[in-house]
Write a sequence for this structure.
């Protein structure tokens, strides 16, 4: 179960992504090829177009949620596209979306560490908080609190999610906006499924607290 309706999820995805491809994506790939960092690209270009391009909207949405800025998200996606293109020959069909989002997430955090180091949570500290504060129970179970989130207006919900710590925010976006499974989120973020569930539950709790206070 997710707490964001399909209609609202699509609205969130439209909010977080551009209506066009990030500027200069293919120009940068071509320049990288010209610099000799990539091999002949005809087959790779076709594979990139088939496996990666359909997911650029979601890639941009994730980058924007992480960076909080349209221009920064475009830079992240452009860099991520170059990384994806360089590795496209090793991508198996059927696993493109988590693979693309993993590259985008890692690129976004690399960008944040370089440009905004204070915005990046120390993962070890977050894990300690989760371990100390974890509560038993199923984070997917229906509760009055999750019902409250489902009824919240879109603007309040977007603001509450945007205010979350980065690791909670990305987990909630990947699950409730992008619709990824726990296993896919674990793959994208590189943490155990139990941590994914913990972060999702705690992120939702913080969103609820924010909505109730507003």
């Amino acid at each position: 179960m997710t707490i964001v309706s399909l209609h609202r999820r699509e609205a969130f995805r439209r909010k977080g992504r551009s209506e066009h491809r990030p500027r200069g994506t293919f120009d940068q790939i071509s320049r990288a090829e010209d610099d000799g960092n990539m091999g002949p690209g005809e087959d790779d270009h076709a594979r990139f177009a088939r496996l990666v391009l359909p997911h650029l909207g979601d890639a941009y949405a994730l980058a924007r949620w992480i960076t909080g800025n349209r221009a920064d998200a475009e830079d992240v996606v452009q860099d991520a596209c170059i990384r994806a293109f360089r590795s496209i020959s090793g991508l198996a069909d059927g696993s493109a979306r988590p693979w693309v989002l993993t590259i985008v997430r890692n690129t976004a955090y690399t960008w944040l560490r370089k440009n905004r180091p204070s915005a990046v949570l120390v993962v070890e500290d977050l894990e300690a908080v989760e371990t100390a504060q974890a509560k038993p129970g199923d984070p997917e179970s229906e509760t009055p609190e999750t019902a409250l989130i489902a009824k919240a207006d879109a603007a309040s919900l977007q603001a509450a999610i945007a205010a979350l710590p980065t690791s909670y925010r990305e987990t909630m976006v990947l699950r409730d906006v992008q619709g990824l499974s726990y296993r896919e989120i674990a793959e994208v973020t590189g943490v155990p499924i139990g941590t994914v569930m913990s972060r999702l539950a705690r992120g939702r709790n913080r969103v609820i607290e924010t909505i109730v206070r507003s």
Observations:
- The longest helix spans residues 193-213.
- The chain has twelve helices and no strands.
- Residues 17-21, 34-42, 121-126, 129-136 have pLDDT under 50 and may be disordered.
